[in-house]
Amino acid sequence: MPDANSKTSGDPTATATVENVEPKLLLSGEITPAFQVEVKPEVGGKVRKIYVVPGQTVSKGDKLVTIDDTDILTEKASAETEIAGASLSVEKTRGNYARARALFDQKLISKEVFANLEADFKISENTLEKAQRKLQIVNDRLNKTTILSPAAGTILDVNVNEGQVVVGAASVNSGTVLMLFADLSRLLINAHVNQMDAGRLSVGQEMTIRFSDDESDKIKAGIEFIAPIATVKNNIKGFEVQAVIQENKGRLKPGMSVSMDVPTGHADQVVTVPVAAVFKEKDQKV
Questions:
Q1: How far apart are CA 33 and CA 198, in angstroms?
Q2: pTM of the prediction?
């Protein structure tokens, strides 16, 4: 009869030990920035200058791209000419209207003549106002030929080249994506958790991202969001879970896939034995 403590090949017996037990749920997810946007132009045209490269850090308001403004400057000159002409017309019709008002008050001209001169004056004022609005629209478009950084962050990717013609983003189309911009100071982990395991998670719960077997080589994250409704991903029904990474120090980057341990309980001083001592494999003799 073999010794109860022996561990010969094929012997399923093992020594029981007393330990602290902390069961963990193993999850996998993908790193993504908390704030990430596609930078698009609001006006179309040829890319004149690109001021950044992938990986470059920028501040809010830094210049990213300029679009060629030659055509818009031509429109601006035309609008300014229209304003000059409309202004002269207003001055002329204002004088006519003022004289007509004096004559009409003295009953020296008919009401019909006075009404026509008054209408001419109002039409000229309307024409000037329209020309001024047109110039304002052109100036707004001109300002939009310079694309600035929406916030402090990092350029992840640049999708266009200098000289390339791009399409402005509008309600009828999506526009050309110039570059991908993100704030890497706050990274998230997006995971899809099986519906059987999702009930063991809660907002605020901590998880550990491991890089090796070294206990000191780990990064902490905290669950920030658990979807209220299940979704199907890769034919598995589960819940979207989002966690915030703490003290990243540049080790994790967007797009990386990571594995995480999520503690789901704790028990002190319990008797433990290896699984192999409890369950037997196929064809294993007991």
A1: 23
A2: 0.68
